[in-house]
């Protein structure tokens, strides 16, 4: 209708807006009041916390126990180290590898003379027995038979004994009266003659052409062969020679360790091979290295072979032949146990058939050995005794000297 204003819808909108504004204002007012109330909450009264002492450190077996009160010391009661300074631990010392000390062997000159007292203690029964018999007022046939028995018991041998007794009978008959000193001089001269003062007893270590000299050491098990090889190395080093040791005994377990130990003591080089290897190859290599090093002497220690084993003896001959592809062998030393007596002569005979023995080493003469074996073995092989062993010491191997040996037999 004209002139009438329509306000119905407009009023509704205005009222709705007012209501919304009122609601919003009310909500904002509630938030402000709530925050003020929170700020005005009184703080809780302070309370003192219960503080408990820390438990004592448990001792062995105390883990499940109730902690005990323990007395604690003040700093004044605690003992401090002298000086009041902290100790600094030294760093651990690293052990250095032990270097084997090279020994200086005893000079060989006059070595047997220095060992004569030891030899005479076990050997002069022969000399004293002979002197006692020769000093009898009447030397009848029974006495001369006793003299023969004394010599045979001393392992002199049948033929040398007969020769000595015959010469003694002739000289005693010519001498007539016999003083103890005359008898001793007579017996000494005859025994030296029997031992053989003119035989060449030098160990051949200087070849005529070029170095090194080659020495083979042979013998049966138990004679002291390997030990003798080591002692001989000491003898040569003492005389100013450089030595290479060939450990050609590859059959016995750990046999190469022994010559290597002897070599290290005096600074000698040792050539060894695998256990059970070819001994001829080891010997060949030893001579080869000896040449390359310019050494004076090569000592070859062979296996201790039973003389009844034909195959092993043939192997020994092979070792010698292989070595001689380098150069001739200058010396073949047969080591015999002097206590074996006549059995040692059998061994000597068989070895001489396999290799050309040039010299003899008699060991264990300081024990129960009979001194006459020196004469018997020389007669059997036709070669001289060059070295004798008089004990277990490293320097108890001595060059054989007939006069010093006889003096030990008959005493002073």
UniProtKB/TrEMBL annotation:
Domain SRP54-type proteins GTP-binding: 384-397
Entry keyword set: Cell membrane, Cytoplasm, GTP-binding, Hydrolase, Membrane, Nucleotide-binding, Receptor, Transmembrane, Transmembrane helix
Heme recorded as keyword: no
InterPro entries: AAA+_ATPase, P-loop_NTPase, Signal_recog_particl_SRP54_hlx, SR_rcpt_FtsY, SRP/SRP_N, SRP54_GTPase_dom, SRP54_N_sf
Binding site for GTP: 219-226, 301-305, 363-366
HAMAP family attached to this UniProt entry: FtsY (MF_00920)
Family: Belongs to the GTP-binding SRP family. FtsY subfamily.
Protein name: Signal recognition particle receptor FtsY
Organism this protein belongs to: Streptomyces lividans
Gene, per the UniProt record: ftsY
């Amino acid at each position: 209708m004209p002139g009438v204003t329509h306000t119905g819808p407009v009023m509704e909108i205005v009222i709705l807006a007012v209501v919304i504004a009122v609601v919003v204002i009310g909500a904002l007012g509630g938030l402000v009041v709530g925050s003020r109330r929170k700020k005005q909450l009184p703080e809780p009264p302070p309370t003192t916390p219960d503080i408990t002492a820390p438990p004592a450190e448990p001792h062995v077996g105390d883990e499940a126990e109730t902690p005990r009160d323990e007395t604690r010391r003040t700093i004044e009661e605690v003992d401090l180290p002298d000086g009041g300074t902290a100790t600094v631990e030294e760093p651990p010392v690293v052990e250095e590898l032990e270097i084997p000390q090279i020994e200086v062997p005893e000079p060989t000159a006059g070595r047997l003379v220095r060992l004569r007292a030891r030899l005479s203690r076990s050997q002069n029964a022969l000399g004293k027995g002979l002197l006692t018999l020769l000093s009898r007022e009447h030397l009848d046939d029974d006495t001369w038979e006793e003299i023969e028995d004394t010599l045979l018991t001393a392992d002199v041998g049948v033929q040398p004994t007969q020769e000595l007794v015959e010469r003694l009978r002739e000289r005693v008959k010519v001498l007539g009266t016999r003083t103890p000193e005359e008898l001793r001089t007579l017996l000494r001269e005859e025994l030296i003659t029997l031992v053989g003062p003119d035989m060449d007893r030098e160990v051949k270590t200087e070849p005529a052409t070029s170095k090194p000299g080659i020495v083979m050491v042979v013998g049966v098990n138990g004679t002291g062969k390997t030990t003798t090889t080591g002692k001989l190395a000491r003898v040569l080093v003492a005389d100013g020679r450089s030595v290479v040791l060939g450990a050609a005994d590859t059959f016995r377990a750990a046999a190469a360790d022994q010559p290597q130990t002897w070599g290290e003591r005096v600074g000698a080089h040792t050539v060894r091979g695998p256990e059970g290897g070819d001994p001829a190859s080891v010997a060949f290599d030893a001579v080869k290295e000896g040449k390359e090093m310019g050494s004076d002497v090569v000592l070859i220690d062979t296996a201790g072979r039973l003389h009844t084993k034909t195959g092993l003896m043939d192997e020994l001959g092979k070792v010698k032949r292989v070595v001689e592809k380098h150069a001739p062998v200058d010396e073949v030393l047969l080591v015999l146990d002097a206590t074996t007596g006549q059995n040692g002569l059998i061994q000597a005979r068989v070895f001489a058939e396999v290799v050309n023995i040039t010299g003899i080493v008699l060991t264990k003469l300081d024990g129960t050995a009979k001194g006459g074996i020196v004469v018997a073995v020389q007669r059997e092989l036709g070669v001289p005794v060059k070295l004798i062993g008089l004990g277990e010491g490293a320097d108890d191997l001595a060059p054989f000297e007939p006069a010093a040996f006889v003096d030990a037999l008959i005493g002073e």
